[in-house]
Amino acid sequence: MYLSSIVSLLPELNEAFFETLLMVGIGLLVALVVGMPLGIVLYVTDRGLFLEKQTVKVVVGMIVNLIRSIPFIILLVFLLPFTDFILGTTIGPLAASVSLSVAAIPFYARIVEAAAREIDRGVIEAAVAVGASPWMIIKDIILPEAKPGFISGLTITAISLIGYSAMAGTVGGGGIGDLAIRYGYYRYDDTVMFTTVIVLIVLVQLVQYIGDFIAKSVNKR
């Protein structure tokens, strides 16, 4: 009976799985494009560094902390009007990706900042002493030296987004969370609930393994 239920569920489970991957993928891409530069800005504008600017540091830090302090389920509902404005809908994985992306940006930015702080400041000071430009320091020192930390942080962000994507199902965001709520919660189908939990666990483990493998591969220390 359990196997027959799983087989009948497979088409919807496959669709929900790829919707989850789509949401998480978009969120990670936005985190890389926006969150990484923000994290580097937070680092290089800190006291004693080559682009020290306390005003920028404080303003960007406050914005990042403000967004991070909002629980995702509240952020999800709060951003529904904005999502409707830019996409014309609040339903589906693309709509849920808006809130996921907004949540991912400050989350990853702080991880990038923390990873950059692990770099020996003496190396940066030496580069400044020989006349290296800020862009050269970022490109040739900060990015290569902190790459393992950036990749590990991206893995952590991906796992967090998988959890967030499940919450998006509460407002019709699609994905595995939506499937679990529609069948597992509203229809009291324990088979669906159990299956979706297993799928999420396997997905998280796979992401963690791949992330750890890549981070170790690029770590030259």
Characterize this entry briefly:
The protein has 221 residues and is mainly α. It contains ten helices and no strands.
Structural features, described:
Residues 17-211 form the ABC transmembrane type-1 domain. The protein is an all-alpha fold and 221 residues long. It has one domain: MetI-like (MetI-like fold). It is built from ten helices and no strands. The protein has helices at residues 2-44, 54-68, 72-78, 80-87, 93-116, 121-129, 134-145, 147-168, 175-185, 190-218. The longest helix is centred in the N-terminal third of the chain and has 43 residues, at 2-44. It starts with a helix and ends with a helix.
Q: How many strands? A: 0
User: Helical content, roughly?
Assistant: over 70%
Main sheet characteristics: none
Ends apart, CA distance between termini: 53 Å
Mean pLDDT: 86
Radius of gyration, in Å, reads 20 Å
Oligomer: single chain
Name of the CATH first level = Mainly Alpha
Total separate domains: 1
Counted by DSSP, the helix tally is: 10
Instruction: Write the CATH fold name.
Output: MetI-like fold
Q: Quick one: overall form?
A: elongated
Give the structural class. mainly alpha
Strand content: under 5%
Q: Which architecture name does CATH use?
A: Orthogonal Bundle
Q: What string gives the helices and strands in order? A: HHHHHHHHHH
Protein name: ABC transporter permease
Membrane topology: Multi-pass membrane protein
Main location: membrane
Domain ABC transmembrane type-1: 17-211
